[in-house]
Design brief:
The structure is a single chain. This protein is of the alpha+beta class and about 800 residues long. It has 21 helices and 31 strands. The strands form ten sheets. The protein has a five-stranded parallel β-sheet. Strands 20-19-18-21-24 form a five-stranded antiparallel β-sheet. A hairpin with a 2-residue loop joins strand 30 and strand 31. It is flat. It holds the Pfam family tRNA_bind. It is found in: Cytoplasm. Keywords: Aminoacyl-tRNA synthetase, ATP-binding, Cytoplasm, Ligase, Nucleotide-binding, Protein biosynthesis, RNA-binding, tRNA-binding. GO terms for molecular function: ligase activity. Belongs to the class-I aminoacyl-tRNA synthetase family.
């Protein structure tokens, strides 16, 4: 990861200079960051940090992984390891991803450190001494088997809200209806670890009295939101919290993995992650320099800029400032907050928990360079509303904006300079006397001067997307300038004018590389190498470098020898786009399963090829051809079952049977089949609508309470029979496609003979595995989009 400071030791505030402390929301350590996370915090903050350094400000950029709390404990349980091992694993993954994205932290740390404990406990003691904390009793679920209070995410049960009744709702939120919950509200709660029923017990906790801090907080918000030009979404979210009324907030939890509370009565508890995580900015800075207080307790000389997604706003505009104000110390409070909305993926949402979207560790496998990823994410930065990532849009921006506009301009100019002196300038920047009186050049200079001023104004206000757009407009102007002057003709007819145009254009190349360095540092480094310049980027007022934009012909000296021009961007073609869309369809689990299925198919195909050769040799010896077997004599294998991807288009209760549903299922080719299923006691009616399902289509139709069922929906059941879940194909599977079992090829029977008990024979080996994948023995139910799965039942029979 690049050292953003580029100095011998830690940077400290310098009197008389702009000292800017930059943070981005600490990414949670229990998963791999996706592109939405990256643009939402670390990349946006990196652009601003690079801009500050470009302008000569004394800036540091602090970030790290947020490591304490329930989610880490839960992930550790899932992966059968300790919370520390989870944190070590994912901290390394995050660091590797941000390294690849050229994120220039001055310090990328973590919150599970002794420094975090020291700073966090010191702040707590100040709040305790100043009487901003109170004690209260809460009711929480306690597991007698595990002998501990259960955190929200360690409890699952049925949603209590009428009309929902989702049976796998978490203790903090129901994923189906989206409503926030308390664990004690769940119906039939179960401990996620041991599956036993917990009981309600009283437990004492500590609370911060936000209502008592309201006056101090509102004064800070009123003044700073204006002075710091807070983004509108941050102001709206903060005002909503104030309008709804501040309440006391619990700051402790009954966990082991966290900062211990330094109080005798509460020594078995840790601090709530919302309280402890923002303090991570401070502790990570203390790992950067022992003189951290010169940054964090120096509001007269330090400006604090914070970057995050919209879901983090209240913790930074209400919670953390209240904590700082409550200590009574002279903290550096946030001046400016830059907030992004959500970046969606194609037609859906990025999701870490579900593995949907392009993740940080995926991008390296695309062969699309980092500067393209950074450019696309930043042009698509969701500053005022949600935006969407799409492969076609990335292709359009790469080919149309980076390749045809920016890359074309730079390459035209440098390639012409590099031509031999008989047709160019022999790689040497020409002298250009008279540029001040060349009309088209003066007109260009005026436009560029104005655009650079707009760029600086936008970047100072942290309008990053506008800043990038403005820099790219200078490239547009450069292309128009070359076309208007027709320099290739000038070279033959008016060499002095051609020298003016080429030297001016070369200066523009240099300027554009400077302006784009915060956005695409690898691009700017490559341009400087081709210009044969040291990799030092600066656009300082003190050195008069901004003023040079009004005289682009003076930016590069005459007689300077450039390096070797090379194309800067490569076209992204339709075939590649389609490959990426298919590769990243579905969830990460789907992709892994697709890869596993493909490997399995390859192995089986090799085996079949070998068997076919043997069979052919045997056949040639006998002088005859193998005869096709009639259905009655065929071996009983999964190839005989006609299992298809279907979609329930309508489901309703059976008019004459309380335990049965009647479904209308699209099984492809315009065919709708009526299916009767005994699922009423297991799956709510609303959850049956529009579901993708696996349908066994060649069973003999059977009448069930006067309605003929023409197929069977496949489902898995728990070992005790208390829970049933549908076997679901990936969302991107094609309706009507056949579900296959690699290694068992052949056409299905038109209709299974009930007397032969074919399905019954095979069904004994149908089950879900530990990864929730539906299988026949060890072979997964496979579609073109990946394998078929259930929601939560592992090692359960499928019928």
């Amino acid at each position: 990861m690049e050292d953003g400071g580029k100095s011998d030791g830690p940077k400290l505030p310098i009197p008389g200079k702009r000292n800017i402390l930059i943070t981005s929301a600490l990414p949670y350590v229990n998963n791999v960051p996706h592109l939405g996370n990256i643009i939402g915090c670390v990349l946006s903050a990196d652009v601003y940090a690079r801009y500050c350094r470009l302008r000569g400000y004394n800036a540091i950029y602090i970030c790290g992984t947020d490591e304490y709390g329930t989610a880490t404990e839960t992930k550790a349980l899932e992966e059968n390891c300790t919370p520390k091992e989870i944190c070590d694993k994912y901290h390394a993954i995050h660091k590797e991803v941000y390294d690849w994205f050229d994120i220039s932290f001055d310090k990328f740390g973590r919150t599970s450190t002794p420094e975090q404990t020291e700073v966090c406990q010191a702040i707590f003691k100040k709040l305790w001494d100043n009487k901003w904390l109170s004690e209260n009793t809460m009711q929480q679920l306690y597991c007698d088997t595990c002998k501990k209070f259960l955190a929200d995410r360690l409890v699952e049960g049925s949603c209590p809200f009428k009309g929902c009744n989702y049976d796998s709702a978490r203790g903090d939120q129901c994923e189906k209806c989206g409503k926030l919950l308390n664990p004690t509200e769940l119906k039939d709660p179960k401990c996620k670890v041991c599956q036993n029923t917990p009981r309600i017990r009283d437990t004492d906790h500590l609370f911060i009295e936000l209502p008592l801090l309201k006056d101090k907080l509102e004064e800070y918000i009123k003044e700073t939101s204006v002075a710091g030009s807070w983004s509108q979404n941050a102001i709206q979210t903060t005002n909503a919290w104030l309008r709804d009324g501040l309440r006391q907030r619990c700051i402790t939890r009954d966990l082991k993995w966290g900062v211990p509370v330094p109080h005798e009565k509460y020594k078995e508890k840790v601090f709530y992650v919302w309280f402890d995580a923002p303090i991570g900015y401070v502790s990570i800075t203390s790992c950067y320099t022992s003189e951290w207080e010169k940054w964090w307790k120096n509001p007269e000389n330090v400006e604090l800029y914070q970057f995050m997604g919209k879901d983090n706003v209240p913790f930074h505009t209400v919670m953390f400032p209240s904590t700082q104000l409550g200590t009574g110390e002279n903290w550096t409070l946030m001046k400016t907050i830059s907030v992004t909305e959500y970046l969606n993926y194609e037609d859906g949402k990025f999701s870490k928990s579900k593995g949907v979207g392009v993740f940080g560790n995926d991008v390296k496998d695309t062969n699309i360079p980092v500067e393209v990823w950074r450019y696309y994410l930043l042009t698509n930065r969701p500053e005022v509303s949600d935006t969407s990532f799409s492969w076609k849009d990335l292709q359009a921006k790469l080919n149309g904006e980076l390749l045809s506009n920016l890359g074309n301009f730079v390459n035209r100019v440098l390639s012409f300079i590099a031509k031999p002196e008989s047709s160019g300038y022999g790689s040497v920047i020409p002298d250009a006397p008279g540029a001040e009186s060349h009309p088209l050049t003066i007109s260009l200079a005026e436009k560029v001067e104005k655009l650079v001023a707009e760029y600086v104004e936008a970047m100072e206000k942290v309008k990053l997307k506008q800043g990038l757009k403005t820099a790219m407009l200078i490239s547009n102007e450069g292309n128009f300038y070359l076309q208007a002057n027709q320099f290739w003709k000038l070279y033959k007819d008016d060499k002095p004018s051609c020298a003016i145009v080429i030297r001016t254009a070369a200066g523009l190349v240099h300027l554009i590389a400077q302006l784009l360095e915060p956005f695409m540092p690898s691009f700017s480094c490559e341009v400087f190498k081709q210009l044969n310049l040291p990799l030092h980027f600066s656009l300082s007022d003190e050195r008069g470098e901004v003023l040079l934009a009004s005289r682009p012909w003076d930016i590069l000296p005459p007689s300077h020898r450039i390096g070797t021009p090379q194309p800067l961007f490569k076209e992204l073609v339709d075939e590649e786009v389609q490959q990426y869309r298919e590769k990243f369809a579905g969830s990460q689990a789907d992709r892994r399963a697709r890869d596993e299925a493909a490997n399995l198919t390859d192995q089986l195909n090799k085996t079949k090829l070998s068997d076919a050769k043997k069979q052919k040799a045997s056949s040639s010896k006998s002088g005859g051809k193998p005869k096709p077997q009639p259905a009655a004599d065929r071996e009983i294998t999964m190839a005989r079952l006609d299992i298809r991807v279907g979609k329930i288009v309508k489901a309703e209760r059976h008019p004459r049977a309380d335990a049965l549903y009647v479904e209308e299922i699209d099984v492809g080719g315009g065919e709708i089949r009526t299916v009767v299923s005994g699922l009423v006691n297991y799956i709510p009616l609303e959850e049956m609508q529009n579901r993708m399902v696996c349908v066994l289509c060649n069973l003999k139709p059977a009448k069930m309470r006067d309605i003929v069922s023409q197929a069977m929906v496949l489902a898995a059941s728990s070992s005790d029979g208390s829970k049933v879940e549908l076997v679901e194909p990936p969302e991107s599977a094609i309706i009507g496609e056949r579900v296959i079992f690699p290694g068992f090829e052949g056409e299905p029977d038109d209709l299974l003979n009930p007397k032969k008990k074919i399905f019954e024979t095979l069904a004994v080996d149908l089950h879900t595995n530990e990864n929730l994948v539906a299988c026949y023995k060890d072979v997964p139910f496979t579609t073109s989009a990946g394998v078929c799965k259930v929601s939560s039942i592992s090692n359960g029979p499928v019928r």
